[in-house]
Design goal:
Two copies of one chain form a homodimer.
Chain A (H helix, E strand, L loop, with lengths): L3 H8 L3 H9 L6 H14 L5 H8 L4 E5 L8 H17 L3 E5 L4 H10 L5 E4 L9 H6 L4 E4 L9 E5 L1 H15 L3 E6 L2 H5 L4 H16 L2 E6 L6 H12 L5 E4 L2 H14 L8 E5 L2 H6 L5 E3 L3 H16 L11 E4 L3 E2 L9 H5 L2
Helix pairs in contact in A: 1-2, 1-3, 5-14, 8-10, 11-12
The structure holds a DNA duplex.
DNA sequence: CGATAGAGTCGAACCGGTTCGACACGTCGA
DNA sequence: TCGACGTGTCGAACCGGTTCGACTCTATCG
């Protein structure tokens, strides 16, 4: 394998000069620079990543800690990955992917061994056991998901409170008086998925403020259970005119459920989900939804992380907790309630 | 950061001795070994990955080249990733993930810079432009997907020919005489997805051998197009009693289509798909299917790759092309055809 | 004209591991 | 008692980059 010494010899200069010519970290005469570049090109020189990392204590690699949970919806996870990898590549970083179920152990290994310059954590739980390890590490970290304690890390998440409010208020404005909210299953909450509560509590508050009845329930994460849940719910609350979904599986199952019941949206029922546009396309879901923007969140986390790695943050820049504003993507599944009934009397 | 020199000093031995004590590459007295281990433990020593890679020319990292294509079904892709990452971790390797759209460029970069000890390629096309780069690289490579030219690499794929035969013969045995095969969209084929042809050709041959009529068609990759396609197909071939699906989107859309048409499986129509069990669970698909085993394929590729990396292959071991046998997972969606009609006359 | 600044180059040291050859010591057999 | 051998340890070199300080040469200014 050709190394920088070979390049230097071919160009007739010292190793250090070749290095400066290629990295541009010191002034080099035009003539020497072109000679070195030429030699490097002809010999097919590529710097050895290990050696460079050793010398500079920078690897240009970002660690990505994901967990492929069986009840996570795969398409959403892949979108996070894509947001992270694409942005990292654009900024000149590679991605070291760990899906180790021993999150803390994997994190400690890749940070202590200096394989990575920084770390992005996905699926962050409220009391995530990776956080103590991350805080003890020498490298900066960025999270996708809001933990209880945000000290020492940059945090990015959807504004689930605002999402809950927006869902309720949107239907309230249309005149709805009784709504149902289907959340993620309870075990997601128990695992630390606080976002479920954040959305739900905000929705409950907003409903109370408007004098609206809101039924809340945890749905299953898989079919056919979630389908049964939805039928039972609609049976139990015949007066409800709006359905809010903070549960991907429920959204995916809903078309079949509504068809079976011969219920039309938005004529008979208004529906608002919370999922990404990509998700909506994959399952061809016709419901308006709060965009959860997984690719954008992944991208934001990487950008901030790289800023920290490269010390582009102002001296003593405080850590960031940034919420993405929930945009309501209108797919025409909401309307004023019960137009039919209103005509009856 | 604590390095091996610190450990050696704390244990009162030379750096080299500390290294031997920790790696076990030379005999060390029990007493010294325990002293070094103790010191390493107390100081919290972790070897520097870059330095080790530089010295040993081994990084213990495997490159994973995936392409997140918009028409790839996300859940399947995630399963490949999971198979690869899990197996790699078990064997002591980390994963460098690249989803760069410039596959050849990314591959050249990570191999030339010695960041990885070997490479796994996903989504391998028939004439994959990453293959020349891989063959020129110093590291071994394993593919998931069958290219035209397999020299210099280990290849793993589902036996799509056998899958096509098995689908047809299964329904033939049950007495079906007219079948429909829905393949992936044509642009998947054009991109080099030869597996579409492999399955289809084998199915056509098997049907001809049995004297069965087989209608073949490329389906769309997204809803609602694929739903329309399915309706049109069933309208066009009212005599068909069996439906074969080599198209994930078609499988996901089928329940809705059949419900609309008031068609029951297997009473009115027998159905066999080609997708993973995980996929079937995610979409709660009730159809028997050929298991495509993405996690297993990913795992096999990594295992073979690691064997090559660690030179555990017998001297001059030839490169491998291994097909996974397609298992038919019975979900009860096939039966003898037209029982109803048979009683009519 | 001499001091000085700046540009460009070089040699050497360093990053943190691994590994080779040499050496010291104790044991065994002749 | 001497030499051969095996075991355990050490020092030094090496992997392939980067970076610091020193040096040379030229241009500039007082």
């Amino acid at each position: 394998m050709v190394n920088i010494g070979d390049v230097a010899r071919a160009a007739g200069v010292a190793r250090s000069t070749a290095s400066y010519a290629l990295t541009g970290k010191r002034a080099v005469s035009d003539e020497v620079r072109t000679r070195v570049r030429q030699a490097a090109m002809e010999l097919g020189y590529t710097p050895n990543a290990g050696a460079r990392a050793l010398a500079t204590s920078r690897s240009n690699v970002i660690g990505l800690l994901a967990q492929f949970l069986p009840d996570e919806f795969a398409p959403a996870m892949l979108q996070y990955l894509q947001g992270v990898t694409d942005t990292a590549r654009d900024l000149g970083y590679d991605i070291l992917l760990s899906s180790d179920s021993d999150g803390p152990g994997a994190l400690k290994r890749i940070t202590d061994s200096r394989m990575v310059d920084g770390v992005v954590l996905l699926n962050v739980a409220e009391d995530d056991d990776r956080l103590p390890v991350l805080r003890a590490a020498a490298q900066p970290g960025a999270l996708v998901g809001l933990p209880r304690d945000c000290t020492g890390v940059d945090v990015f998440d959807l504004d689930f409170e605002e999402a809950g409010r927006a869902m309720v208020e949107h239907l309230a404005r249309l005149g709805h008086r009784e709504l149902i909210l289907v959340s993620q299953p309870e075990h997601v909450v128990e695992r630390g998925g606080a976002y479920v509560w954040r959305l739900q509590n905000a929705a409950v508050q907003a409903a109370a403020a408007k004098g609206i009845t809101l039924h809340t329930v945890f749905g299953a994460a898989t079919q056919p259970d979630i389908g049964r849940d939805l039928h039972a719910l609609l049976d139990a609350h015949p007066g409800a005119t709006g359905l809010l979904l903070n549960n991907e599986a429920a959204a995916a199952a809903l078309p079949t459920v509504l068809r079976t019941r011969d219920v039309e949206t938005p004529a008979d029922l208004s529906v608002i989900g919370r999922y990404s546009d990509e998700f909506a396309r994959t399952f061809s879901l016709p419901y308006s939804s709060i965009e959860s923007a997984p690719d954008r969140l992944g991208s934001m986390a990487v950008r901030q992380l790289v800023r920290r790695i490269e010390n582009q943050v102002p001296e003593g820049d405080p850590y960031v907790v940034r919420f993405v504003h929930p945009e309501l993507v209108d797919r025409g599944s909401t309307a004023p309630p019960h137009l039919g009934e209103a005509c009856e009397p």
